[in-house]
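Let us practice reading a record.
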Amino acid sequence: MKSWRKGSITKRWIVNTFGVFLIIIVILVVSLSFAITSFFYSGIQQTIAGRSNELVNFFGQYLSSDTDSFTQTARSYVESFPDKELMELLVINDKGEVIITSTGFFPDENEPMPDYEEALESKSNFAVWSGQLNSGESVMAVTRVIETTGGEYIGAVRYVVSLEAANRKIFVSISALIFAGLIIIYFMINSGAYFIRSIVIPVKEMSETARKIAGGDFDATVDKMYDDEIGELSDSINYMASELAASERLKNDFISSVSHELRTPLTAIKGWAETMRSVDTYDPMIMNKGMSVIISESERLTGIVEELLDFSRIQDGRMQLMMDKIDLLAELDEAIYMLRERALSENKHLLYDEPEYAPPVMGDKNRVRQVFINIIDNALKYTPQSGVIGIQVTSDQEYITITISDNGCGIPEEHLPRIKEKFYKANHTIRGSGIGLAVADEIMRLHNGSLSIESTEGVGTTVTLVFPVLKEDDGTAEV
């Protein structure tokens, strides 16, 4: 059985939990059994010992050995003894012979009397013995030796109590303990088995589902059986599956978008190359136009490839910045200059009111310019003709804040939380790989800055870039 394989939860529970509990139950039952036996036997012994103390009153007047007087006194003691129904009395003379019994029947001469022999040797003149008679009956015997005031032995009285009734009570009590222990073990096995099943069965299902997910079946889910840690794990696996499915869809969309982005310039390059080759006579106009298109589309391809390489470096943690003291306004001017011609060709207005001064920052000028180009390019892509893209720069002693706003289509509210995630595109009708914002956000993070986006669908989008100002005292920038 798989549930009993090495290291399984069931086996560990049997060994570690049930095994320990079983040992504890056995120890408790054994200890209580000894305690019950001791309780009954001690009670009987105390009762007999209490009775034997009466001998001081009956036989304490002997100054010297007097066999006849001892026999008469012993007979009187036996006849007046009130507990003859509970125990048997045997009077033994100074020769070790039983001369009187409370039952009238004398014991077998071969019947051993270990307590009598021990009492003779004991300084306390008292001994107790528990065992079986020759008849097989279990008894407890107490012997008290009687001496004269001068210390001369004149006889002994032996009290014998049958332990059969006590043993029956002890047996019943121990049986009840064992039965109670078995009941406890039974309920523990059942409750433990239910508990183990409540863990093992869901875990097995999770294992099967995890294997399906690993095989690419992102629609596989785990049924939530319990509202506990196992239930939380089920929710986590289901959430993981849904996130992997979403990532798979984003990856496929990304591949499709990148393929389209690459195919478009390649098609233009190939088309114009074939056109230029098919012209019979040299036409400078066609050649110049074709070369312009080829150069433009080649630069576009280079930009796409560089963006993919940047994203790969970010994923692997290999992106390195050439940090230096830079003029942020100069890099922003360069980015606007590169895109202004495109804005004019698309009949879009790029408005920028350059401030007179902004404090320097610590950064990589190429990466900072890449962020500006990426954000302004996005604004141009999502702004219709005659639209306006506004750029503003504000600064204080701590930060330089650059806001790039447009009155384009805007971003639906449900897309805003994920707009900076890799591969994510809120609008699939607009060209782009879906990794530009992810790259720009990582570059801002490496500059100890921030990139935030606010947008209203149908109204427009505002991107805010915050750079920490360079602290001249230590030559570093702080957030």
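A brief commentary: Residues 2-33+170-212 form one domain.
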